[in-house]
Amino acid sequence: MTQMIIDLRSDTITQPTLEMRQAIAQAPVGDDVLGDDPTVQALETYVAQLLGKEAAVYMPSGTMTNQVALRVHTEPGDEVILEAEAHIYYYEGGGPAALSGVMCRLVTGQQGIFSAQDVISVLRPADPHFPRTRLVCLENTHNRGGGRIFPLSNIQAIAEICRDRHLKLHLDGARFWNACVATGLSPADYAAPFDTISVCFSKGLGAPVGSALVGSAADMQRARRFRKLFGGGMRQAGLLAAGALYALQHHYDRLADDHAHAQILAQSLAEIPGIQVNPADVQTNIVVFQTPGRDAVAVADQLDQQGVRVLPVGPHALRAVTNLMVSRAQIQQVPERVQAVLGSGIALA
Ligand code: TLP
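That is the input. Now the predicted structure with TLP docked in place:
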């Protein structure tokens, strides 16, 4: 009997549901570059209101919303403060240098979380020797931090420093919805300290495509210009926006299921000899576990043969992301399959 594949590589693998496909099929569309697409406009208005900001701009990807935000807030030669494992720095193809010509100044967080003091420690004096520090970027939840939530109190303290020093504050909120659901904070309260926020519809929410940048009307006008310049102006994009709007209106609350599944998974993996994971570190839908002495790529390959897909994220670290496509019953099958692999004598690293 062939085993059902349990795909935990990412929450980006989710497929549109039948109801979402119906919403997409019925969406009115127009040429969005000419400002004519009613469904894109409905999505942008809805998201801006939800986050308590003036405007939003729909874009093809989270990478683009982040990189457009950097370009909106900086000029070439400026400096951006980022956490050392931030997606913007780590996984976006060198975008800050290539697209905005900025310097990245890194702070080392704990599982991606840092403090106002960390920001103060890297601020430059106003002196022509130094680049101009213009922007601080946070990530909530933090991907390489294992889905860690950025506490609102830290964010508010960092925002205060930014206000004092005339720095802008951007959030990579690819998994912002997960942070809101896990903390019970409203999107508007959690978004309040930021100048711009990038939110994603095609991760936990399960839409096929798209992210939005959200902020002031003036910043979003500038963002539209850079979206076009970066090649992200889309024509009848309402077909995609309809999936995003449907996802936001129907799949938001169920993110709590993904968080519960991640906790179940972490607790069961913690029981398996040869695996290290602390369930208390799992706050949302990402479980990072260690396989000390075993090569993570080899473990991932063997798990694949057992019908469990995870991603290597370090020499001995793997990532499992719970998502819309994976049921609780499937999550409960994972430990047995993992045990089958770890008991089989994988090549040591
Ligand atoms: N993350 C992907 C990979 O790129 C690693 C994943 O599978 O987790 N910010 C954060 C925090 C992200 O996790 C991602 C995607 C993005 C931005 C970029 O989003 P897309 O893929 O839409 O460009």
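The pocket of TLP is lined by residues 10, 12, 61-63, 66, 87, 91, 139, 143, 172, 174, 200, 211 (CB under 6 Å).
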